[in-house]
Write a structure and sequence with these properties.
72 residues, mainly alpha
Length: 72
């Protein structure tokens, strides 16, 4: 997750969100649900603070990550 946060601070928004999403996926696979929620909150809080919108492709990916956890 730290890599994604760092990328966001550098302005690499897509890369940062993708990195955080990967962390969310991994946390979901190991049932670390609190950490996964922190990842989601980091994305949402970043968008609020920077006044950026979450792109549809990122929302779709977030939904996919959440649905994958149900399969494990």
């Amino acid at each position: 997750m730290h890599k994604g946060e760092y990328q966001l601070t550098l302005g690499f928004i897509d890369e940062g969100i993708q990195s955080i999403m990967k962390s969310m996926d991994i946390y979901g696979k190991i049932n670390a649900f609190q950490e996964r929620e922190k990842c989601k909150n980091n994305i949402v809080n970043y968008c609020i603070k920077s006044r950026k919108t979450i792109e549809l492709k990122d929302l779709v990916l977030m939904k996919k990550v959440y649905n994958l956890v149900k399969q494990y």
